[in-house]
Amino acid sequence: MNPDKGYIHDSQRRSEQTGKLISCLKAVAGIFKARYGLVCFILLLAITGPGTLYGAKPDIRIDKTQSDLLIPDKELRGLIERLQRALTALDLYDGPYSGVVNDDTSTAILAYQRQRGLERTGIVTKGLVDHIETVVNVGALLERLSIARQVSTKAARQALLDNPSTRDLLVRDVNQESANATHDPKLCFSEPTVRCLLVEALENAKTINRSEMRNWAYGEILIAQAKVGMTAAARDTIRRIRDPRLIIAALGEIAQAQAISGNHDNALAAAEIIPDLEERTSAYSIIADILAKQGNREGALSAVERLHSDVVLMKTDIKRAALMARSSVILANIGYQDRSHSLLKDLEEQAILTVEPSKHNALLRYIASAWASIGNLDKALSLLENVSNDSDKMPVLMRTAEAQILAGNIAAAKHTAHSIAALRYRAVILSTIGIELARAGFESDAIGTLGDALVAREGIKFPFARDYASSRIALAYGQIAYTDNQSNPEIFNRAISSVDEIVDQQLRAKTYWMLAFYRLDAGDSMAEKTKDDAISATGNIESTTSQAWLLADLAEARAKAGDTSWARELYENSLDITQSITSSWGRARVLAKLSQALMALARMSQVKMSPTTSQ
Questions:
Q1: CA–CA separation, 552 vs 591, rounded Å?
Q2: In terms of Cα–Cα distance, which of 357, 359, 284, 288 is closest to 329?
Q3: Mind listing the pLDDT tens digit for each residue in 549-602?
Q4: Which of 463, 513, 547, 549 is least enclosed, having the fewest CB within 10 Å?
Q5: What pLDDT does residue 302 have?
Q6: What are the CA-CA distances from residue 320 to residues 362, 365, 416 (Å)?
Q7: 378, 438, 379, 369: which is closest to 410 by C-alpha?
Q8: 3-class secondary-structure state, position 50
Q9: What is the gyration radius of the CA atoms in the chain, in angstroms?
Q10: What pLDDT score does 475 carry?
Q11: What are phi and psi of 561, to 5 degrees?
Q12: CA angle 236, 216, 204 (to 5 degrees)
């Protein structure tokens, strides 16, 4: 029952009586003479009282009797003043902040209740004041975000204009194009090629009405174009994007795609023309990391040096420290340990001089994580003792545990994992430790560790975080079931049980597919059974776009893993589903993803057909 209903003012009840009496007057109007009608009208006024006829507003009263309010008289004036200030912010009140309910206040309250679809009770309550202030605060936040977005958009546009290499990307002519009305998509679906899939994606993107969604689709298309080597086409796609900020981000995506393809000179050249300092330094960092993992020592060092040259111009201490710490790890990974250590020591000195607690904690977090990543765990943990915030400690502990696992120090990794307060991260790390224990031949310890992960999972409150932990635990059981080229059906059944705990349908389906891949790679005859379960789980995903995207993503991964048979099947199933997608936005994104899967399949076919492979 609504507690406000018991406090409707008597004037509102009299208003209902007025309606009934007016109906009565109309009914007898043809019988009584005018003087009797006048007498009846006077009687009506006497019954109802003033202020209820001709649309007059009911009075406002203050509710001090609700058990959740009980507003002391000394606080009442302050509450009403808050109300008046909040109503002023909404342009509903322009009177004084008197702390007294006047006619203007009454009008404003009723207008607010009408606008928000609230019951027009005419009652001042603390709940109503809180409601209005919340609306005001949210509105102010959105306004600040809008202003910030406008400022960043303007700055991004100016940065593009100031750079001769990117000025032409703001040409607007291509943005006015519309989809080709005579275009027949059936031709591509019957005999798909990488190029025609991307053309189809562009045609669908052109028909998206909402600019932000269209920009999103164009962004994914250009990433696909860059990854498959269609750099010129990607640059044309950039010109279709209206948001200058997304154009700058797109330049970074092209640079990364060039690095992934092994073209480090082109990657660095692409990053160099990014006009925004933070985006450019971030691109250099990512390129350096990619090249280091590829074993391209020279390219990685060149990217790091460009990063260092630009990062000194940055104004933000935290961002600069994060990039420098990351570059120290890359330097260590490509054999420049002395430079790496010297860089981290310089960062430590900066952190010592930083007195603001939040900045101090953040700086130490990045430095400690870097020390952990390059294997100096004692140094990382000693720095962590000076970090007062648990949220800042968590990523360092995660990185430390991962480094301990890689170093084979499983006991230390378990100790570190149990010190992680956030259960969702503890469960994930324990799952990884379980896998490493099984690989080392300690199956019993591995199972016990996964039991600890299950206990941690039970305490996770947020649904998706719990689902993610269940997925990682399931995948850990799945890998443990096939260690040492032996199959353990009982352990694999535990993996299936953990999958069944996952509520999110897309994550559940992907986990089933991964378990099916484990069985297939191990030569288990039950792989087809698990694949059937994965297909069923995929069919339970409500969105056809999500279904098609998942299958295309898995197809690309399997092709890169050398499994052309299942990769081709996944690709074709995704292609079939894509034809039924009615959303232009969803279809454009999936087609872009399918082009990458098809390119991976094509490359794998070329590898298999090359003479060197058969020898």
A1: 9
A2: 288
A3: 999 999 999 999 999 999 999 999 999 999 999 999 999 999 999 999 999 998
A4: 463
A5: 95
A6: 12, 13, 28
A7: 438
A8: coil
A9: 33
A10: 93
A11: -80, -5
A12: 70
| DSSP 8-state code for residue 542 | S
Around Cβ 170, how many Cβ atoms within 10 Å? Answer: 16
Region 229-242: mean pLDDT is 80
DSSP for 435-463 reads: HHHHHTT-HHHHHHHHHHHHHHHHT--SH
Identify the band that residue 46 occupies on the pLDDT scale cut at 50, 70 and 90.
very low
- pLDDT of 488: 87
* 8-state DSSP, 32: S
What's the CA gap between 169 and 243, in Å, rounded?
11
Q: Any residues with CB less than 8 A from the CB of 87 and at least 6 apart, and which?
A: 93, 105, 108, 109, 112, 132
Q: How far is CA 609 from CA 106, 567, 572, 606, in A?
A: 82, 17, 22, 5
* DSSP 3-state percent helix, strand, coil across the chain (nearest 5): 75, 0, 25
**Other beta carbons within 10 Å of 186:** 7
**Angle 319-325-326 (CA atoms, 0-180°, nearest 5)?**
90
Residue range 56-79, pLDDT digits in tens: 334 444 444 443 344 456 677 888
Of 234, 247, 222, nearest to 157 by C-alpha is 247
Helix (H) / strand (E) containing 323: helix 317-333
Strand partners, 123: 61
Q: What are 284's two structure tokens?
A: 């250099």
Amino acid, res. 299:
G
Q: What are 472-490's pLDDT values in tens digits? A: 999 999 999 988 767 888 9
Cite the beta strand spans of 29-107 per DSSP E: 61-62
**Closest to 590 measured CA to CA, from 567, 564, 556, 563:** 556
- pLDDT at position 1 over 60: no
* C-beta neighbour count of 407 within 10 angstroms: 12
Q: Is 163 left (phi over 0), alpha (psi -120 to 50) or beta?
A: beta
State the pLDDT at residue 21. Answer: 42
Could you give phi then psi for residue 124, rounded to 5 degrees?
A: -85, 120
Please say if the pLDDT value at position 88 is more than 70: yes
pLDDT in tens, 314-359: 876 788 889 999 999 999 999 999 999 999 999 988 888 877 877 8
Tell me how far apart the alpha carbons of residues 218 and 225 are, in angstroms, rounded to a whole number: 10
Amino acid at 327: S
CB 3, CB 66: distance < 8 Å: yes
Instruction: Report percent pLDDT > 70 for the chain.
Output: 78
Residue type present at position 524: D
Q: Give this prediction's pTM.
A: 0.67
| pLDDT for the residue 287 | 95
Q: What is the DSSP string of 378-435?
A: HHHHHHHTT---HHHHHHHHHHHHHHHHHTT-HHHHHHHHHT---HHHHHHHHHHHHH
**Whole-number Å distance between alpha carbons of 241 and 211:** 9
Residue in the structure block whose two tokens are 């994992």: 417
The rounded distance, in Å, linking the Cα atoms of 80 and 308 is: 57
